[in-house]
Amino acid sequence: MLDVTSEHRKVALFGGSYNNWKATEAVLADAKRRGCDGVWFLGDVGGFGPHPDRTAEVLRSAELGLVQGNYDDSVGSSREDCACGYTDPRDNHFAQISYDYTLANTHAEHRAWLAAMPASARIRVGEKTVHLCHGSPRQVNEFLWESTTPAGFVEHLCNRYETDLLACTHTGIHWERRLADGRGLVNVGAVGRPANDGRQNVWYAVLEWVDGRVRTELVPLEYDWEAVVAEMRAEGLPEEFVETLATGWWTTCLEILPARERVAGRF
Amino acid sequence: MRLSMAWLDTLWLQVTGTVCNIACRHCFISCGPKVRKHDYMTVEQCQAALDSAKSEGLRAIWFTGGEPFLHPDILELMDAALEVGPLGVLTNGMLIDDALAAAIGERFRNAPYNLEIRVSLDGCTAEQNDRIRGKGVFDAACAGLRRLAENGVPALVAVSLVDDDAMDQARLVEVLTGLGLERPRIKWIPAFRIGREERRGRGYEAWEMLTPEDVAHPETPHRLQCGTSRTVTSNGVWPCPILINEPDFRLADSLDAALGPHRVDHKACYTCYVEGFSCST
Ligand code: SF4
Ligand code: SF4
């Protein structure tokens, strides 16, 4: 098992910046305002937003812990695609546009930084261990959705990784499942893209040691999405991506959604 | 040549074995109305498999056959599975009448985990589909899809593209929208069958086998569905749904005893490896 890297009373966990540097700035400010004594980023710096280097700079100038996402691994190693594994031709088309744009606009120095991120980390919140990862602790691009991640599987992962809690991102939709004994899994959602619920805000999580247990708060975060939308248009990024930030509904990469999460969206 | 699983997280239950209400020309396990090579599984057999898979870290259950909705206890089986994890049912869609569609809809909304109904088509039009699946099958499948849509179930339509029917894809989307599937969820399965048939046509060459290096590669268990799943039928446990008619590839009576390394030297294994084929995609 990995060593515990840091200890916290109250820690902010976020992931999925997807080049949304305004939301990334906002989450760091919000965590500070809430009195968090630490911040961890769970991966995916790049994605469908504008100016990849800006998000990298925001993250690199902040004091925070890092876990690598599949996008970071791909961009860091200049691979051909983001390794999200889409099969739908339309999803692939749009995924490739954002990936090519991100790769072309990420400075070599940032790529080296992305490539060097660790695949996972362990922290303590109060007396409990939290295992941090991007997709799942066993696979960087495994999707853990609420409707397809059974309690028995959460228990299995907690046992196998000898942890009280698991924290992940990757799917872009936040949720939490606790077992009867208090162990469990929290998907912190994403700050780069709204949660396909018709609202423009994005999500992250705050874990706090209170009364002998780790309390999870899934936090809705407002940010200046209009500024990001303007930059995306100026950069000539697809209007489909712009629409997602402006409406809160996903318009691409829908094939990965399980049926139950899919019917909750508009498209 | 044997492959060690990465882990077991997907369980295939051949709930109706090789019994199907139709007999498609391409069915790789030759199912049909009277084919009882693998019979219906009992509720107890399914429960036993679910219980032992659960302790291994199960995260996905698939029902297949044959045609799962022929099973007299199908709703009870679905409930048992959905208690443990998300369930997908592979169906030809023909037996989904109003009562069944309502029962599926109720489970789709209220079960603890996701329920995915996947209806298979072979082609985008009745003409293309029925050539392989039989007369009237396209219309009957569409009727099932319409009833599911009426009950709020967004079925996934898995379309194996035949020959060059790319031209008809837009037409199928229109047909599905007309059935009430507002946002049709379609999985286009590329016409890799052509390549496969071609290869099969001339037979497999001796070199068309996984090599020991392929098998030893750490990514291989993730590339082959047998690297993370097992298939249970009324007759025992196999590595995958493709090989259940191959007695030499049978692993054990029970799931617990079937998790060790398994053979991957069947000619179909080469196709899986090269095409990245999986029954769930
Ligand atoms: S519907 Fe499926 S199981 Fe039945 S005969 Fe056709 S391919 Fe085989
Ligand atoms: S046919 Fe495919 S899934 Fe089945 S054992 Fe061979 S490689 Fe594995």
Task: Describe the protein in words.
By secondary structure, chain A is α/β, with parallel strands linked by helices. Chain A has one domain (4-264): 4-Layer Sandwich (Purple Acid Phosphatase, chain A, domain 2), CATH 3.60.21.10. Chain A is built from nine helices and eleven strands. In chain A, the strands form two sheets. In chain A, strands 1-5-6-7-9-8 form a six-stranded mixed beta sheet, with helices on one face. Chain A is globular and about 50 Å long. In chain A, 52% of the residues are buried. The mean pLDDT of chain A is 94. Chain B is globular, with a radius of gyration of 19 Å. Chain B has 281 residues and is of the alpha/beta class. Residues 192-201 of chain B have low confidence and may be disordered. In chain B, the strands form two sheets. Chain B has an eight-stranded mixed beta sheet with strand order 7-6-5-4-3-2-8-9, with helices on one face. Chain B has a single domain, classed as TIM Barrel. Chains A and B meet through helix 6 and helix 9 of A and strand 5 and strand 7 of B. The complex binds iron/sulfur cluster (SF4) (2 copies).
